Amino acid sequence: GPQMNLVKKIYLKKTIKKYEKKIKSLGSNSKINIENFLLSRTFIDLALFILLVFIPKFGIILAILVTLLFHILYPYLLIDSNLEERHDALYEEGLMFFQMLKLSLISTNDLRKSLEIVANKLDNSLANDFKKSLARNAYNNNLLLIFKDMEERIPNQDIIVSLIDLSESSDYIKTLDNII
């Protein structure tokens, strides 16, 4: 929309892609979107600079330093710190998810059906990401493509590697034993 056009005029494609990837890694439950993030950063930078530049004596120096500091810290505070928390949370969620997946596979022996069952039973961000990927690929039976779809939303590479190993395995239970 019009917000994205403005973002594209202000920021380089490389910068947009960088933050887009980070924001997607926050998962499907994230309320942050690329347009609002970059535009708010720009407008707050501008407002800080304008407010501080009018301080007598050292206003211009203070305006430059504070604006630069804010410009650098804003992504950390909004995205990077949340990514670190999500990475840690995904470890715990992944362990629970894979344990439940193992139990489900014992009864069904169908990986896709088991993934759907576990994703619908659990209420956490990993399960929600699975639900979205499974829904997005409802008519696609290739689990590897579904796992690749999830890769951009899951910053924990151990989970992605485990999923790919699982999709390429013929003995799901044995592979899950190695994962867990």
DSSP helix fraction = over 70%
Largest beta-sheet characterization? none
Distinct helical segment count: 9
Radius of gyration: 21 Å
Strand content: under 5%
Low-confidence stretches: none
Structural class: mainly alpha
SSE layout and pairings?
Blueprint (H helix, E strand, L loop, with lengths): L1 H9 L2 H13 L8 H20 L5 H50 L2 H11 L3 H12 L6 H9 L5 H12 L3 H8 L1
Question: Can you put this structure into words, describing what you see?
Answer:
- The chain is mainly alpha-helical and 180 residues long.
- 80% of the residues lie in helices and 0% in strands.
- It contains nine helices and no strands.
- It has helices at residues 2-10, 13-25, 34-53, 59-108, 111-121, 125-136, 143-151, 157-168, 172-179.
- α4 crosses α5 and α6 packs across α7 (143-151).
- The longest helix has 50 residues, at 59-108.
- The protein is elongated and about 75 Å long.
Brief rundown of the structure:
By secondary structure, the chain is mainly alpha-helical.
Name its key features.
single chain, 180 residues, mainly alpha, elongated
